[in-house]
Amino acid sequence: MAKLNLSPKILDVLDFGTPSAERDISRGLEKYFVESPAYHRVRSGAKTILMGNRGAGKSAIFQVLARRERAAGSHVIELSPEDYSYELLSSTMAAESAGSWAKQGAYAAAWKYLIYVLVMKALARKGMRLTKNGGRQIHNYIRDIHGAQQLGPLSLLVSYLKRLEAVKIGPIEAGVRTRELDRLYQLEEIQNLLPALRKVLDNQRVVVLVDELDRGWDSSEDAKAFVSGLFQACVSINALHQNLRVYISLRQELYDDIPALYDDAQKHRDLLEKISWSEDSLLELIARRIRHSAHENGFAVDALERAGDRACWSAVFAPPPPGKGRDGSFGYMVDRTLYRPRELIQFCSEALEQTRARRCKLPVPYSAIERSEYGYSAERTKDIAAEYRSQYPGLLSVFEVFRSRPAVFGREELELLCLELACGDVPTHGTGSWLPSCDPNELIEILWRAGLLTARASGEGRFLGSHQVQHLNLAAVRRFRVHAMFHASLGIDAAGAGSAGG
């Protein structure tokens, strides 16, 4: 394969995009978006619950989906972090212990009420005053009930929850309470409008996107009921009409942190789409961004447009010295990710900035990658620990215990270290709520799931992380390795430690 040489001037304008899909959509995300099988399953409506780790690309799918639905004439409703506040919910709603008041069902009813009202508002906003197909009924309801009050989504949700709460734990006679609760749970206020809504949806499409539920997550009673209730509402509403689709995105840690959600998901596993990336798809992602950046800045290089993904990469990143990573510089850098697009974009961008700062030329020299690695590694180490702060507070101090230790551990050695951690013989900070109750095998599982550890399933195989294989019999694994992404931050010298493999 002939080497592809780019103009030196491309270095000044080369841009891999931002780690945030919300900012990236206005900079061309739709043009260089990787249309994965997961995206197509979501776009078709076959999957409506999107699950993945932070930085895996959930928001990117939603941003592109929203733009393309609007272009097709659909009504799109986007609920963002500004539309929900777990702290407000916890301070506003009475605890379940205050009465026989199961919150998940209440939140499910409130979510259904909110989403149906938002859908009808979106349809009525288009000036719907039709005398046929149910339009007049919907318009009159929105005008009469919601015309004067301009409550935001969170306020509307809370107002319905407060109505349920007032009946459930208020001083109301038992028979009246049962009738009122049934009326509220059955959404009697809008139930008679649903046939009219179905008729309107025969000719109009509405898409509701609920994203970034992890923002401000505090693992509280209300937070868990909020998300599990939304899950139930999503499944119910999507059964109304094929032209009404509610999509939600969930971080893996939230899913794992809500037992009720996990139980519900078993019944609706066919609706879940878990985002995963391979080395090939990550390479495609970066190559698309290289081509787009060059083209948008006036460097429409035909050879670049025709070149394969590997050639695009090699035109921008020089290979490392022999022995520094497998499969060239791409293998070196992707081995320092958990296969999340945001990580690779961040690492590539920082290496690019190092190249510009030293006034080097393309391709980006390995020395620039090396200089950017520590900052990248330190930031990712903190971010990964922060992702699990609700389930495993103080996880960063557990990571720190591996500082300056060997990269590879035998099983007995690792179990002993985990036992010392659980017993407090090796000090940590802020871990008292969970670490003392962990046995060594449980702690190994947590560290593998979080990404710190990789495991070698067979004697001569590669070390594999949870981002590379969903299920692994860790009890049978004899050797573990600290993931290469953490090496620079934790001062781990991986020389002579064997295959990187994650």
Number of strands: 9
Shape: globular
Q: Can you summarize the main beta sheet?
A: 5 strands, parallel
How large, in whole angstroms, is the Cα Rg?
26 Å
Structure report:
- This protein is an alpha/beta fold and 502 residues long.
- 51% of the residues lie in helices and 8% in strands.
- The chain is built from 25 helices and nine strands.
- The chain has helices at 10-13, 21-24, 29-32, 37-43, 58-71, 86-92, 103-124, 135-146, 153-169, 174-185, 188-191, 194-201, 221-237, 252-257, 259-267, 279-296, 302-306, 309-316, 328-334, 341-357, 366-387, 395-400, 411-423, 440-450, 487-490, and strands at 49-52, 75-79, 206-210, 244-251, 272-274, 408-410, 453-456, 463-464, 479-482.
- The strands form two sheets. A five-stranded parallel β-sheet has the order 2-3-4-1-5, sandwiched between helices. The protein has a four-stranded antiparallel β-sheet with strand order 6-9-7-8.
- Helix 9 (153-169) packs antiparallel against helix 10 (174-185), helix 20 packs antiparallel against helix 21 and helix 23 (411-423) crosses helix 24 (440-450).
- The radius of gyration is 26 Å and the shape is globular.
- The relative contact order is 0.11.
